[in-house]
Design brief:
Length: 311
């Protein structure tokens, strides 16, 4: 279990079944009495001063101190104060963030797999991208601005946290629209916890870029992408870094990920450019895999999406 080579997952066969949730074990939780809640809260409080997590776990659940995801919440989200987190391994390391696999639950209760995206605050980050992002988002407190400009460790951490905040907001907005994105469970500092897209044994869904779909499957995935783009545009948004690497395919369904740089198509002076670049990037992948340009009609699609986005 959990010993997959996450950076080079096997190509999975395409299936048409509906996307399934990743809850492991029973997903319904019992209701706690107020007294029991208070007792568990005390246990938790003591645990914070106790660095040793219980039963070989890596930490107590950080749920109650984090920004929590949009409601109504899926029923598999573990909200119990006495839950613990187990680190199961690294799904992917990147320049800007590392993504880890986490299991959260009560020792004898429901367990759920989560993807933990942890933004880096180290020198390895791409400061160019940070500068572009922070432009126009002036921080009011000059201490924070100075820390960022001087790249102190405090400042670097603030930047990393801003990315986590931005991605959590984007996922929350898109989830609430009904778009196929991982449910954003919580955000705490530079760490974002979201629904794990993959199988219950911890194998992550492959990126679109790794697949060689047959012509029918390719066409079906394109139609899903157009629906996804249409929904995003209807909210006035564009992904901003769309590619076949930021789309996962789970049980035949596309799932959009990696959204910290989401763009407001109308308010952003380069909004139109980002939307066009997204569509051309990903259409290019479909063409290389053999989908005819007469089907994708990229120029027509861009024109439609811009009309929708301008609402
Ligand atoms: N919710 C998730 N469920 C399963 N796997 C995920 C999830 N989120 C991310 N991953 C895995 O982690 C990889 C990196 O995630 P993401 O693209 O969000 O981060 P990134 O730092 O931008 O990485 P990159 O620079 O490679 O794009 C994904 O390609 C995917 O394999
Ligand atoms: Mg990515």
């Amino acid at each position: 279990m959990y010993e997959h080579d996450y950076d080079q997952p096997e190509q999975l066969p395409m299936r048409r079944s509906r996307r399934t949730k990743n809850s492991v074990g029973p997903s319904r939780r019992g209701r706690l009495t107020e007294r029991e809640k208070a007792r568990l809260a005390r246990v938790r409080e003591e645990a914070y001063s106790d660095p040793v997590a219980p039963d070989g776990a890596d930490r107590w659940s950080t749920w109650d101190r984090a920004d929590q995801g949009p409601v109504p919440r899926p029923d598999w989200v573990v909200t119990e104060l006495a839950a613990v987190d187990h680190e199961l391994g690294v799904l992917k390391t990147g320049k800007e963030a590392d993504v880890h696999l986490l299991r959260r639950g009560l020792p004898d209760g429901p367990q759920v797999l989560l993807a933990a995206k942890r933004y880096r605050s180290s020198d390895r980050r791409d400061f160019h991208r940070d500068a572009a992002y922070l432009e126009g988002r002036r921080m009011r407190r000059s201490r924070e601005m100075r820390a960022i400009e001087h790249r102190t460790s405090f400042g670097r951490n603030l930047i990393a946290e801003q990315w986590a905040v931005a991605e959590f907001g984007a996922l929350s907005a898109l989830w609430s629209l009904g778009a196929p994105v991982p449910y954003p469970v919580q955000r705490d500092g530079t760490e974002l916890l979201m629904e794990f897209i993959g199988s219950p044994d911890g194998a992550a869904a492959p990126r679109l870029a790794q697949l060689r779909p047959d012509p029918d499957e390719l066409h079906e995935l394109w139609l899903q992408l157009v629906a996804l783009l249409d929904l995003t545009a209807s909210a006035g948004l564009a992904h901003g870094d769309l590619s076949a690497y930021n789309l996962l395919v789970h049980d035949g369904q596309l799932v959009l990920i990696d959204l910290p740089q989401i763009v407001d198509v109308v308010a952003n002076p380069n909004g139109e450019y980002f939307l066009q670049r997204d569509v051309r990037n990903v259409a290019e992948w479909f063409h290389r895999r053999g989908l005819p340009e007469s089907i994708t009609d990229v120029d027509g699609l861009i024109a439609d999406l811009l009309t929708v986005a301008r609402g």
